[in-house]
Amino acid sequence: MLTETEQRSVKKNARRALDLLDDQVFGLGEQERQIENIVYDFLQSKDGKCCLLEGERNCGRESTVRKVMEKYKKELRVINAGFVAADPNYQQELAREEDSGYSIFLVRDADKLITPQQQKILYTMVDKATHFSWLVFFSISRHDFAQNLQKQATSRIPKVQVSFDTTHNYDEYCSAMTQFLIPKGSKCEDDKCYKKFITSLNFEKWLRPVFQTSRFVVLKQLAAQILILFGYYCEEWESSEINKMISAIVARSLPSYNEKVIILKDQTLRSQCVFLCVWKLLQNKESDGPLSVPKTSYRNVFLEFKKLVNSYYPPLNVSSDIFVFRELDHLVKMGVLKADESTNVTNTSFKKVWTQINDTVVKDTIPQLQLPSRISDFFESISK
């Protein structure tokens, strides 16, 4: 049990560590060095250039670039490829932009620009870097990014590339957790009470399941939750209570944990079937635009539900669409589904709805639901 003085020390330092967490980058020293060299050469030569940053989502590319920018006290202009692709006006503004000195860009999710109609944006950015003092970083996830471009684009794509595909062992993973909770060079390092408390957590014993299933981004999220707990919410400072709270946080961070699935499992049979009807209708359905998700209408869900119960389980039948609409509203309220709340939808039948649970997770969850065998077999056959 910590004394009141020790509790205050832990709270104060946990808040400090949380404030510094966004800037914490671990295991990317070589990538940081390469990017720093690229930026230094650009600032010295004034010659525009482009660079590919290759790696999976949330692998630390943007954090590393921002860290280098802060070192040189330069502004980083971030362009979200998805939004640019959907906004012709912004594309035109970008094309008309003149040289205003050193400009450094990061194009997020540049993979979204590999379709033939969107590659013009790539031409624009590369051309600007050719003629102006522009340094453009393209953040990509696909190893075959260049191969998927048209010949006109392939010839322009830069050969300079920094790879963020890195692997780490368990000791390095634990070292990263230590750095997130006790940032190097911070006042947290000087507080013996705080360091002793963090060491007493023995996270080396309970981190392995996270290491086996997750990358550093999840570790960082886990560290954030622990720091928020100790900095703002912890009231029980007994070791046993702290261990329980941390175990709950770790469980929520694992891929097998999904809060919405737990909610779905607690619903009535009718609610579960209504949800699965929404999911079935959205299978292979295209969205209305690049920034929207596939949706279906309340009316379509009702018709699908009627078809389901008439064919496989008549006891669930309803006499009116209002019963299915109420189930949909309930599932939206519970956060399992999401619905269009637009004020211009005056007829509930035309209201749009979509799922809040990943398609793969739904497929894995169907066998776990207590469904009648015929209904379960039907939905499992769709998921295969």
From TrEMBL:
One of its GO terms (biological process) is DNA replication initiation. GO terms for molecular function: DNA replication origin binding. This is Origin recognition complex subunit 4 C-terminal domain-containing protein. The lineage of its organism: Eukaryota, Metazoa, Ecdysozoa, Nematoda, Chromadorea. InterPro entries: ORC4, P-loop_NTPase. The gene is Cnig_chr_III.g9635. One of its GO terms (cellular component) is nuclear origin of replication recognition complex.
